[in-house]
Amino acid sequence: MKSRKEYNYFEAFINLSKFSLNSAEILNKTLHEFDIRKINEKIREMHNIEHSADIAKHEMLECLMKEFLPPIEREDINVLSQKIDDVTDAIEDVLICIDIFNVKHIRPEILKFTELIVDCCKSMDSALVEFQNFKKSKKLHSEIVEINRLEEEGDALYVNGVRNLYKTSGEPVELMVWTEIFRRLEKCFDACEDVANTIESIVMKNS
């Protein structure tokens, strides 16, 4: 662990976002190449990432407890680290849900979700890179706007996906399973937007 004097909270935020992006890429690849025989292996891989993210977050908060003068308010560091961690958790929840419901085939429209989640996590990572120099950055605002745009695109996928589901299936179990999976996918976009909104709030307070 870095010493208090050396600890860089902005780099730590970026590090947390890398876990989210890695999780998104694994989810996307797993569902594009879906093989039910490998689902447990992929869940373990995803859980290891989530566990590493938790360790990194706890390290940050441990440094924060001993920090005399953090670069931004303690509460903001705590909240932002949790919001980024929520993205990783939300992505993991999608794969867990697919396993719990014993899904054997992935609906084609689901792949549009996972590709967009990867894009959203990439934009979140870019926003956090710009956040390091938020007082001088000329790109941070556009990165936040892009995350908001992707979240709206994710909402549209959710609405269209659920509508199509109920138009094409009358089987109660299938409806229940895929409605929940759609909901968890949509939650990933909301989690990314929460990060963007938190960054924006911190910038406003420190401008």
From TrEMBL:
It comes from the Bacteria. Pfam families: PhoU_div (PF01865). Belongs to the UPF0111 family. This is Uncharacterized protein. It comes from Anaerocolumna cellulosilytica.
